[in-house]
Amino acid sequence: MRISKLALTLLLSATLSFNATAAGGKLIDFLLNGSGALEMLAKYNIKGDAASEIGRYLELSLKSLNISGQLPSRQQFTAIIDRLGGSAEDLRLKKQLQELLSKDADNVSKDDVVSAINNIIYLANRHGNTATAVLGCARCVSDELSLHGFRFTMRELADSNAQSVLTQILPKNPADIRKFISSKFQAYGLGDFSRVNSRLVAPEEEKAMALMLGLYEAGSPKQKELVKQIFEASKDSSGRIKFMAEGGENKLHLLFTEDMDDEYIEYWTKTLKGVSAERKESGDSMKEAFFKSLKKEAGDDPVASEQIELLRTKKCFFP
To answer: What is the mean pLDDT of residues 84-99?
Structure first.
Protein backbone atom coordinates (compact mmCIF):
# COMPACT_ATOMS: atom_id res chain seq x y z
CA MET A 1 0.00 0.00 0.00
CA ARG A 2 1.40 3.39 -0.99
CA ILE A 3 1.14 6.31 1.41
CA SER A 4 1.46 9.83 0.04
CA LYS A 5 4.12 12.14 1.46
CA LEU A 6 1.42 14.42 2.91
CA ALA A 7 -0.42 11.53 4.58
CA LEU A 8 2.83 10.19 6.02
CA THR A 9 3.74 13.62 7.39
CA LEU A 10 0.35 13.98 9.04
CA LEU A 11 0.57 10.48 10.49
CA LEU A 12 4.03 11.07 11.94
CA SER A 13 2.98 14.45 13.31
CA ALA A 14 -0.04 12.98 15.05
CA THR A 15 2.03 10.11 16.45
CA LEU A 16 4.71 12.43 17.80
CA SER A 17 2.12 14.74 19.32
CA PHE A 18 0.38 11.81 20.99
CA ASN A 19 3.66 10.40 22.31
CA ALA A 20 4.69 13.76 23.75
CA THR A 21 1.68 13.75 25.99
CA ALA A 22 0.74 10.12 26.42
CA ALA A 23 4.22 8.95 27.40
CA GLY A 24 4.45 11.10 30.50
CA GLY A 25 7.02 13.86 30.31
CA LYS A 26 7.29 17.03 32.32
CA LEU A 27 4.62 19.66 32.88
CA ILE A 28 6.49 22.00 30.53
CA ASP A 29 5.94 19.54 27.67
CA PHE A 30 2.18 19.69 28.12
CA LEU A 31 1.88 23.45 28.53
CA LEU A 32 3.93 24.16 25.40
CA ASN A 33 1.71 21.84 23.37
CA GLY A 34 -1.76 23.26 22.69
CA SER A 35 -3.54 19.91 22.76
CA GLY A 36 -1.41 18.80 25.69
CA ALA A 37 -2.44 21.83 27.72
CA LEU A 38 -6.12 21.16 27.00
CA GLU A 39 -5.60 17.51 27.93
CA MET A 40 -4.04 18.52 31.24
CA LEU A 41 -6.89 20.95 31.96
CA ALA A 42 -9.49 18.32 31.12
CA LYS A 43 -7.83 15.95 33.60
CA TYR A 44 -8.96 18.37 36.32
CA ASN A 45 -12.42 18.91 34.85
CA ILE A 46 -11.57 22.24 33.24
CA LYS A 47 -13.33 21.83 29.92
CA GLY A 48 -15.39 23.62 27.30
CA ASP A 49 -15.30 27.41 27.08
CA ALA A 50 -13.22 27.75 30.24
CA ALA A 51 -10.48 25.51 28.87
CA SER A 52 -10.58 27.25 25.49
CA GLU A 53 -10.22 30.66 27.14
CA ILE A 54 -7.28 29.54 29.26
CA GLY A 55 -5.72 27.92 26.21
CA ARG A 56 -5.90 31.24 24.34
CA TYR A 57 -4.44 33.21 27.26
CA LEU A 58 -1.63 30.66 27.60
CA GLU A 59 -0.81 30.66 23.88
CA LEU A 60 -0.74 34.47 23.72
CA SER A 61 1.49 34.58 26.79
CA LEU A 62 3.94 32.00 25.46
CA LYS A 63 4.19 33.80 22.11
CA SER A 64 4.62 37.14 23.88
CA LEU A 65 7.57 35.87 25.91
CA ASN A 66 9.31 34.68 22.73
CA ILE A 67 10.85 37.60 20.83
CA SER A 68 9.97 35.91 17.51
CA GLY A 69 6.28 35.96 18.40
CA GLN A 70 6.06 32.22 17.77
CA LEU A 71 5.35 29.42 20.22
CA PRO A 72 8.72 28.60 21.81
CA SER A 73 10.29 25.18 21.90
CA ARG A 74 11.07 23.63 25.26
CA GLN A 75 14.71 24.69 24.99
CA GLN A 76 13.76 28.24 23.97
CA PHE A 77 11.19 28.63 26.74
CA THR A 78 13.58 27.32 29.39
CA ALA A 79 16.19 29.86 28.28
CA ILE A 80 13.61 32.68 28.19
CA ILE A 81 12.52 32.02 31.76
CA ASP A 82 16.14 31.65 32.93
CA ARG A 83 16.95 35.14 31.62
CA LEU A 84 14.04 36.96 33.28
CA GLY A 85 14.88 39.48 35.97
CA GLY A 86 12.63 42.06 37.57
CA SER A 87 11.18 42.69 40.99
CA ALA A 88 11.38 40.39 44.00
CA GLU A 89 7.87 39.16 43.18
CA ASP A 90 8.84 38.52 39.55
CA LEU A 91 11.82 36.47 40.70
CA ARG A 92 9.74 34.55 43.24
CA LEU A 93 7.17 33.59 40.62
CA LYS A 94 9.90 32.77 38.11
CA LYS A 95 11.53 30.35 40.56
CA GLN A 96 8.17 28.80 41.43
CA LEU A 97 7.39 28.39 37.72
CA GLN A 98 10.72 26.69 37.03
CA GLU A 99 10.07 24.22 39.83
CA LEU A 100 6.56 23.49 38.58
CA LEU A 101 7.59 23.05 34.95
CA SER A 102 10.24 20.49 35.91
CA LYS A 103 7.71 18.23 37.66
CA ASP A 104 6.62 14.95 36.12
CA ALA A 105 3.28 15.56 34.43
CA ASP A 106 1.88 12.38 35.94
CA ASN A 107 2.51 13.68 39.45
CA VAL A 108 1.33 17.29 39.29
CA SER A 109 -1.79 18.48 41.10
CA LYS A 110 -4.48 20.79 39.79
CA ASP A 111 -2.98 23.58 41.91
CA ASP A 112 0.39 22.99 40.23
CA VAL A 113 -1.11 23.33 36.76
CA VAL A 114 -3.16 26.42 37.62
CA SER A 115 -0.21 28.08 39.39
CA ALA A 116 2.10 27.41 36.44
CA ILE A 117 -0.37 28.96 33.98
CA ASN A 118 -0.99 31.93 36.29
CA ASN A 119 2.75 32.53 36.56
CA ILE A 120 3.30 32.31 32.80
CA ILE A 121 0.54 34.86 32.15
CA TYR A 122 1.86 37.14 34.91
CA LEU A 123 5.43 37.04 33.61
CA ALA A 124 4.28 37.57 30.02
CA ASN A 125 2.41 40.69 31.10
CA ARG A 126 5.51 42.01 32.87
CA HIS A 127 8.20 40.95 30.42
CA GLY A 128 6.48 39.93 27.18
CA ASN A 129 7.22 41.36 23.75
CA THR A 130 3.59 41.71 22.62
CA ALA A 131 3.05 45.32 23.66
CA THR A 132 -0.66 45.29 22.84
CA ALA A 133 -1.37 42.35 25.18
CA VAL A 134 -2.83 43.49 28.50
CA LEU A 135 -3.54 41.44 31.60
CA GLY A 136 -6.98 41.50 33.20
CA CYS A 137 -8.66 40.00 36.26
CA ALA A 138 -10.13 36.52 35.80
CA ARG A 139 -12.43 36.97 38.80
CA CYS A 140 -14.20 39.86 37.10
CA VAL A 141 -14.36 38.14 33.71
CA SER A 142 -15.46 34.62 34.60
CA ASP A 143 -16.74 33.03 37.80
CA GLU A 144 -15.79 29.62 36.44
CA LEU A 145 -12.17 30.57 35.80
CA SER A 146 -11.94 32.16 39.23
CA LEU A 147 -13.41 29.10 40.95
CA HIS A 148 -10.73 26.96 39.32
CA GLY A 149 -8.06 29.29 40.73
CA PHE A 150 -7.11 31.25 37.63
CA ARG A 151 -6.22 34.83 38.49
CA PHE A 152 -5.57 36.49 35.16
CA THR A 153 -6.77 36.96 31.61
CA MET A 154 -4.56 38.06 28.72
CA ARG A 155 -5.92 39.79 25.64
CA GLU A 156 -4.61 41.86 22.77
CA LEU A 157 -6.30 45.24 22.51
CA ALA A 158 -7.58 46.19 19.07
CA ASP A 159 -8.33 49.87 19.78
CA SER A 160 -5.95 51.96 17.66
CA ASN A 161 -5.38 54.60 20.35
CA ALA A 162 -4.62 51.97 22.97
CA GLN A 163 -2.27 50.23 20.55
CA SER A 164 -0.48 53.50 19.85
CA VAL A 165 0.03 54.19 23.57
CA LEU A 166 1.18 50.64 24.27
CA THR A 167 3.62 50.44 21.37
CA GLN A 168 4.88 54.02 20.99
CA ILE A 169 4.54 55.75 24.37
CA LEU A 170 4.87 53.22 27.17
CA PRO A 171 8.28 51.79 28.04
CA LYS A 172 8.73 48.03 27.91
CA ASN A 173 10.68 47.43 31.12
CA PRO A 174 8.55 47.02 34.30
CA ALA A 175 10.82 49.37 36.26
CA ASP A 176 10.49 52.01 33.55
CA ILE A 177 6.71 51.60 33.50
CA ARG A 178 6.68 52.43 37.23
CA LYS A 179 8.78 55.53 36.51
CA PHE A 180 6.33 56.51 33.75
CA ILE A 181 3.39 56.15 36.14
CA SER A 182 5.18 58.14 38.84
CA SER A 183 5.94 60.97 36.43
CA LYS A 184 2.31 61.15 35.28
CA PHE A 185 1.02 61.08 38.86
CA GLN A 186 3.20 64.10 39.55
CA ALA A 187 2.27 65.87 36.30
CA TYR A 188 -1.48 65.41 36.82
CA GLY A 189 -1.45 66.22 40.53
CA LEU A 190 -2.47 62.70 41.53
CA GLY A 191 -0.08 62.33 44.44
CA ASP A 192 2.95 60.12 45.07
CA PHE A 193 2.65 56.79 43.27
CA SER A 194 5.31 55.20 45.47
CA ARG A 195 2.87 55.52 48.37
CA VAL A 196 -0.02 53.80 46.59
CA ASN A 197 -0.93 50.49 48.23
CA SER A 198 -0.37 47.41 46.06
CA ARG A 199 -3.95 46.29 46.77
CA LEU A 200 -4.99 49.23 44.57
CA VAL A 201 -2.36 48.81 41.87
CA ALA A 202 -0.75 45.39 41.98
CA PRO A 203 2.46 44.88 39.96
CA GLU A 204 0.54 43.00 37.27
CA GLU A 205 -1.86 45.96 36.96
CA GLU A 206 0.80 48.61 36.37
CA LYS A 207 0.62 48.26 32.60
CA ALA A 208 -3.14 48.95 32.70
CA MET A 209 -2.55 52.00 34.90
CA ALA A 210 0.14 53.27 32.54
CA LEU A 211 -2.21 52.74 29.59
CA MET A 212 -4.94 54.77 31.26
CA LEU A 213 -2.52 57.62 31.98
CA GLY A 214 -1.17 57.45 28.42
CA LEU A 215 -4.68 57.66 26.99
CA TYR A 216 -5.27 60.83 29.01
CA GLU A 217 -2.75 62.47 26.69
CA ALA A 218 -2.97 60.46 23.48
CA GLY A 219 -6.44 58.91 23.48
CA SER A 220 -9.58 59.94 21.63
CA PRO A 221 -11.59 62.87 23.06
CA LYS A 222 -14.01 60.38 24.63
CA GLN A 223 -11.20 58.32 26.16
CA LYS A 224 -9.61 61.46 27.59
CA GLU A 225 -12.95 62.54 29.05
CA LEU A 226 -13.43 59.16 30.72
CA VAL A 227 -10.03 59.38 32.41
CA LYS A 228 -10.79 62.95 33.45
CA GLN A 229 -14.04 61.85 35.08
CA ILE A 230 -12.21 59.13 37.02
CA PHE A 231 -9.97 61.85 38.43
CA GLU A 232 -12.95 64.15 39.07
CA ALA A 233 -14.83 61.44 40.95
CA SER A 234 -11.85 61.02 43.27
CA LYS A 235 -11.95 64.65 44.47
CA ASP A 236 -12.71 65.27 48.13
CA SER A 237 -15.15 67.88 49.47
CA SER A 238 -12.52 70.61 49.16
CA GLY A 239 -11.99 69.84 45.47
CA ARG A 240 -8.60 68.19 45.89
CA ILE A 241 -7.89 65.13 43.76
CA LYS A 242 -7.46 62.16 46.10
CA PHE A 243 -6.88 59.58 43.39
CA MET A 244 -5.72 56.36 45.09
CA ALA A 245 -5.71 58.20 48.42
CA GLU A 246 -8.11 58.06 51.38
CA GLY A 247 -11.69 58.42 50.18
CA GLY A 248 -10.70 58.13 46.52
CA GLU A 249 -9.32 54.59 46.47
CA ASN A 250 -10.30 52.75 43.31
CA LYS A 251 -9.15 50.27 40.69
CA LEU A 252 -10.87 51.87 37.70
CA HIS A 253 -7.69 51.58 35.66
CA LEU A 254 -8.87 47.98 35.14
CA LEU A 255 -11.54 49.34 32.79
CA PHE A 256 -8.74 49.73 30.27
CA THR A 257 -7.78 46.04 30.18
CA GLU A 258 -10.46 45.47 27.53
CA ASP A 259 -11.48 47.23 24.34
CA MET A 260 -14.29 49.73 24.93
CA ASP A 261 -16.48 51.07 22.13
CA ASP A 262 -17.82 54.64 22.24
CA GLU A 263 -21.13 53.55 23.77
CA TYR A 264 -19.37 51.76 26.61
CA ILE A 265 -17.04 54.73 27.21
CA GLU A 266 -20.01 57.10 27.28
CA TYR A 267 -21.79 54.86 29.80
CA TRP A 268 -18.84 54.92 32.21
CA THR A 269 -18.29 58.64 31.71
CA LYS A 270 -21.93 59.33 32.59
CA THR A 271 -21.72 56.97 35.57
CA LEU A 272 -18.65 58.72 36.95
CA LYS A 273 -20.27 62.12 36.58
CA GLY A 274 -23.06 60.69 38.72
CA VAL A 275 -20.47 59.54 41.27
CA SER A 276 -19.01 63.05 41.46
CA ALA A 277 -22.47 64.55 41.99
CA GLU A 278 -23.25 61.96 44.69
CA ARG A 279 -20.01 62.71 46.52
CA LYS A 280 -20.70 66.44 46.53
CA GLU A 281 -24.18 65.82 47.89
CA SER A 282 -23.42 63.15 50.49
CA GLY A 283 -19.74 63.57 51.30
CA ASP A 284 -19.32 59.81 50.89
CA SER A 285 -16.16 58.05 49.78
CA MET A 286 -15.73 57.38 46.08
CA LYS A 287 -16.62 53.73 46.65
CA GLU A 288 -19.88 54.39 48.49
CA ALA A 289 -20.88 57.14 46.07
CA PHE A 290 -20.17 54.80 43.17
CA PHE A 291 -22.56 52.13 44.40
CA LYS A 292 -25.21 54.63 45.50
CA SER A 293 -25.14 56.22 42.06
CA LEU A 294 -25.44 52.85 40.33
CA LYS A 295 -28.36 51.84 42.54
CA LYS A 296 -30.20 55.07 41.75
CA GLU A 297 -29.67 54.41 38.06
CA ALA A 298 -30.84 50.79 38.40
CA GLY A 299 -34.05 51.73 40.19
CA ASP A 300 -36.28 48.67 40.65
CA ASP A 301 -34.56 46.60 37.96
CA PRO A 302 -33.68 43.30 39.72
CA VAL A 303 -31.14 42.23 37.08
CA ALA A 304 -29.24 45.52 37.28
CA SER A 305 -29.36 45.39 41.08
CA GLU A 306 -27.89 41.89 41.06
CA GLN A 307 -25.07 42.98 38.74
CA ILE A 308 -24.27 45.90 41.03
CA GLU A 309 -24.00 43.56 44.01
CA LEU A 310 -21.71 41.30 42.00
CA LEU A 311 -19.44 44.27 41.29
CA ARG A 312 -19.30 45.01 45.01
CA THR A 313 -18.75 41.38 46.00
CA LYS A 314 -16.04 40.71 43.42
CA LYS A 315 -14.31 44.00 44.31
CA CYS A 316 -13.60 44.57 40.63
CA PHE A 317 -13.11 48.34 40.91
CA PHE A 318 -13.04 48.97 44.65
CA PRO A 319 -11.13 46.84 47.20
So the answer is: 96
The CA radius of gyration of the chain, in Å to the nearest whole number, is: 22
pLDDT for the residue numbered 237: 83
β-sheet bridge partners, residue 137: 152
CA angle 166-169-172, nearest 5°?
65
- For the chain, the domains span 5-156, 160-314
171: DSSP letter? -
Eight-class DSSP state of 243 = T
**pLDDT value of residue 236:** 87
- Burial of 78-112, coded b for 16+ CB within 10 Å and e otherwise, reads bebbeebebeeebeebbeebbebbebebeebeeeb
Q: Is the pTM of this model over 0.90?
A: no
Neighbours of 15 (CB within 10 A): 10
Angle CA(218)–CA(64)–CA(84) in degrees, nearest 5?
105
Percent of the residues in the chain that have a pLDDT greater than 70, as a whole number: 92
Task: Please report, for residues 91, 205, 209, 304, the alpha-carbon distance to residue 135 in angstroms, rounded to integers and kept in the order given.
Answer: 19, 7, 11, 27
Amino acid residing at 53: E
- pLDDT over 90 at 13, yes or no: no
